[in-house]
Amino acid sequence: MSDYSKIIQSHDHVIETYELVKEWEVWIRHNHIGSQAITIRILLGNDGKYHYRTSHYYHGTGQAGPYVSSDSYAPTIESAINKALRQLFSFYNQEDEGAIWVKAEF
């Protein structure tokens, strides 16, 4: 955690801070949706864990809603990246004609 985050965290009303560690724009090709730009962000929390965020969630026709993992942090950047990719591709089917990407509150 940087000195800047420590300054922010020292304020009485701040309960959590997340510092941006790395961000990627990834283009994903789907046979029916087309190409979609998705951002993956890795943040370091004041808890010392790496948290990930994705700009979109995949919603296949066989799912009740888009898949959003409840396991959104990891001890290393690499494992946070792998969890972000798992969130994007766990139910991914590029042949699903009714699938959509749902924009996340990012």
Task: Please explain how this structure is put together.
The protein is α+β, with helices and mostly antiparallel strands and 106 residues long. The chain has one domain. It is 19% helix and 38% strand. The protein has helices at 3-9, 77-89; strands at 18-30, 34-45, 50-54, 56-59, 73-74, 100-103. It has a four-stranded antiparallel beta sheet with strand order 1-2-3-5, covered by helices on one side. The protein has a two-stranded antiparallel sheet with strand order 4-6.
Task: Calculate Rg over CA atoms.
Answer: 16 Å
Give the averaged pLDDT, no decimals: 95
* pLDDT < 50 stretches: none
Which structural category do the helix and sheet elements fall into?
alpha+beta
Shape estimate: elongated
Provide the fold topology.
Elements: H1 3-9, E1 18-30, E2 34-45, E3 50-54, E4 56-59, E5 73-74, H2 77-89, E6 100-103
Antiparallel strand pairs: 1-2, 2-3, 3-5, 4-6
Short description, anyone?
With 106 residues, this protein is an alpha+beta fold. The protein contains 2 helices and 6 strands. It has one domain (15-103).
Q: What descriptors fit this protein?
A:
106 residues; two-stranded antiparallel sheet
